Amino acid sequence: MKSLLSHAVVSTLLAIACCATGPSAVNAQTSQESDYYKITTFQTPVGEVIEAAGFQMFPDGSLAVCSRRGDIFRIQNPLADQVGADQFSIFARGLHEPLSLAWRDGWLYATQRGEVTRMRDEDGDGAADVFETVADGWGVSTDYHEYAFGSKFDKDGNMAVTLCLTGSFNSDVQYRGWAMKITPDGKTLPMTSGVRSPAGIGTDSKGRWFYTDNQGPWNGTCALKPLLQGKFVGHPGGFRWYEDGGSTMGPKPAEPNSGSRMHIESDRIAELEMPAVLFPYDKMGKSASGIACDTTGGKFGPFVNQLFVADQSASTIMRVFLEEIDGHVQGVCFPFRSGFASGNVGVEMSDSGALFVGGTNRGWGSVGNRPFAIERLDWTGKVPFEILAMRLQKDGFELEFTQSIDPETASDPQAYDLQTYTYEYRSQYGSPEVDHTRPKIRSAVVSEDRMKVRLVIDGLQRGHVHELVCNQVKNADGQNLLHPQAYYTASHLIK
Fold this sequence. Notes:
495 residues; mainly beta; Neuraminidase; Immunoglobulin-like; 3 helices
């Protein structure tokens, strides 16, 4: 295998100082994010622009990475302490903006703008030499915004593909603004309407598909949304294609009322599925992207089966805990790790517990000041003091922590600051926070094992983000939370 030319890349990662409510805030103690999760930035080949958007481990332990520029590279020994440019080789060139990769039965699959393609290396020289179209059942792209993102395969061999709208508002090409299901025999079936600007797709630990959508028309802020057969997830720009949807979609939903609230419209529009998690704009970033689930059984730390979601603008990784309420999935997002070198897009969790992160600032800009980057996030083995989970109760929330808590601080209702807000569901671009409330925390009861707190609250709000800040809560050693903020989206309440 011929390796690419190597060069040394000397760089200091941007240190980010944010306010206490920002996506990368840490407490005033000496503890910091890098104590628990270490970023390794790969040295990339001279002359190559690798705007990494998707990853896939090969069975031999090497790593495939696809670039928005149309290339797929192969990285040998990607788990090494340092990864140099001589570990990169070219696997494929000349694709049309591949943004996602998957592996099945000896083939590497790439989702391009116009199709899902599979490829393999038959002559053993380390580069793909056989390419086949698997599925292309959507219109030919005519606009820069018409990105396509593909999932990994589910247990039945299906793949999901999300298709961006034409621009922000319209669907000028068939099925733009939809999610499609690709069956094992290559059929392309309409699955979910209402997609606007997806930037990542993945599954939770139960195999349920989710995607990230970005702030814009009919999206007050960025969100994690479920992909469910026959459902509508918010943007009506692609309604024109219901006439092509056939039996897999049913009738076209009613038009939403601009300026309403999504939970109100969901009561009127049966097909409208609420977001699982809203990412408050600015506080948790501005452009949610890739999704990875920690199914490593603890190799990535204490957050087993939780989701890790990238943000391109803030150059961060967020953490998401999900639960099921009244038959719907919803949950909470937390800050997790900041300081990445570029704008994070693709993420991939290896079986060994390494999170690969790919980035580009493309032209949108990002907090990370490099134009592109490939990085790896590794757990150091130390457990941070964090809110592990936030679970909705009929009359409040239960908080679970990663470490034993100090009962004196944790049992004081004044140690918690809670507000709620939501966003307008409207045809204009984005929305400010609206409908703010201040629920009253009546009591905070610490569990016998000192790992949980039960908050009894008056004033839970359906359809609202419940922003909880726990600045005064300490662990048994007197240490503050690494990230005291939690943002729970109560799309549904317990009846």
